[in-house]
Amino acid sequence: MRDADPAADDAALQRLALWATRYTPTASPWNEDNGADGFFLDIEGSSHLFGGEEKLIADLASRLGKNFGLPARLAVADTAGAAWALSRFHKTPLFVLPSGQQAAALAPLAIEALRLAPETRSLLRRLGFKTAGALFDKPRAPFAARFPTELLRRIDQALGRVDEPLVPIVAPPVYHCLRYLLEPIFTQEAIVAHANRLMQTLVHVLARDDAGARALRLGLYNVDGAVETIDIALTLPTRSVAHVARLIALKLEALAATRDAGFGFETIGLAVTRAEPMPARQIELTPAAAADANRTECCAALIDALRQRLGPASVRRFEARASHLPERAEMLPPVDGKAPTWPAPEQNSRPLLLLPHAEPAEVTALVPDGPPRRFCWRGVTHEVTGAEGPERIAGEWWRRPLPCPSPLAGEGKEGAPTRDYYLVEDSDGHRFWLFREGIYGRETASARWFVHGLFA
């Protein structure tokens, strides 16, 4: 005797359903009113891989008993409701119901086979209903008036009159390929070799549909029942077998320290979890188009390799953002495969290096609102030989304050001061980007200067 632990039961059922995806991509745990005691498998389109439905459930029952010590009752039917009922109430532990015979098979079973709430079952028995078949041919109006909607819904689901959507343990893949191995494999080289063959199989289907893989999931099914999944994200849609195999190898190398092959992997699967259109292109007759396509693909391959080594969020790129303030005009999101868009270049030049935060400088000017003649920055005095400007940038009063404070006066508050930017060159030929904060005489009584960037 042990204390009941529903949370642990649910977690164990989730792991068992994930293991069962070796038979079909769609596995859905059943853990509603009756507790965590089983799961559904949608084996349409996959039973032929095992020689038919009878052999599939026989193999499943054998592995559940051998790998986990779990005796199981299994049933195959057209509907999830019928399969649930037959697996629990049919006299045969392994049963396959021919198509279209749900009503005849369910009729002699007890009303508990319809997955009804205890209160509904108790009321039905008090009214004299003991079997599911006694409910099938009765007028529906009295049931609808006296019972919850659950009763008629469960009857219709079991008989296939209405659909019963299942919630899979993982998102169903768009394209999926599975390989059952005669002998378990352990090494990274063997895993990559089998993944290469699986990708070759998927490429034919992708090419048929003019599609490419943007995200893949490699599933490794251990002999002892553990399941390891490896997700691969790509910058652009691809059908390149060599590229996918290289990314899988890089991912396995990164996970080598934490991955434990145990008794080896007996099944390996590769699924395309996200596909995007990838129409055929004519590149042989247009060398320029071929060169552009090759550059794009090489850049995407480099980004994919870096993401596998460093992590998806570690590889970023600059993207333009609609703002006049230099520190707001660009952002660094993770690479997502979309080409960045940049506005048309402005007439005013921008520095090659923008400082993380504008740094104060001591500036000498002929008049308070005139260009700088000399400035001291970081302890070094620079004599200005030429200045260009000003370029006036007003504060963006309609935006929220910046999330982190900066050394600028008024920054982070509504109505930030206006800035007058100057491009200046010192006697050594170095160029700087300075700005004066606030309009003299209207926004400030004393000029404050800052260095915001450096030119090459």
Name a few traits of the molecule.
Dna Ligase, domain 1; six-stranded antiparallel barrel; alpha+beta; 3 domains; four-stranded antiparallel sheet; elongated; 456 residues
Give your account of this protein's structure.
With 456 residues, this protein is an alpha+beta fold. The protein has eleven helices and 16 strands. The chain has helices at residues 6-19, 53-68, 80-89, 102-106, 118-126, 133-136, 140-146, 149-159, 188-208, 241-254, 287-310; strands spanning 27-30, 38-41, 74-76, 94-96, 175-185, 211-222, 227-238, 265-277, 319-320, 330-331, 353-365, 372-377, 380-393, 419-426, 431-437, 448-454. Strands 11-12-13-14-15-16 form a six-stranded antiparallel β-barrel. Helix 3 (80-89) crosses helix 8 (149-159) and helix 9 packs antiparallel against helix 10.
Could you give the topology of this structure?
Layout: H1 6-19, E1 27-30, E2 38-41, H2 53-68, E3 74-76, H3 80-89, E4 94-96, H4 102-106, H5 118-126, H6 133-136, H7 140-146, H8 149-159, E5 175-185, H9 188-208, E6 211-222, E7 227-238, H10 241-254, E8 265-277, H11 287-310, E9 319-320, E10 330-331, E11 353-365, E12 372-377, E13 380-393, E14 419-426, E15 431-437, E16 448-454
Parallel strand pairs: 3-4
Antiparallel strand pairs: 1-2, 5-8, 6-7, 6-8, 9-10, 11-12, 11-16, 12-13, 13-14, 14-15, 15-16
Helix pairs in contact: 3-8, 9-10, 10-11
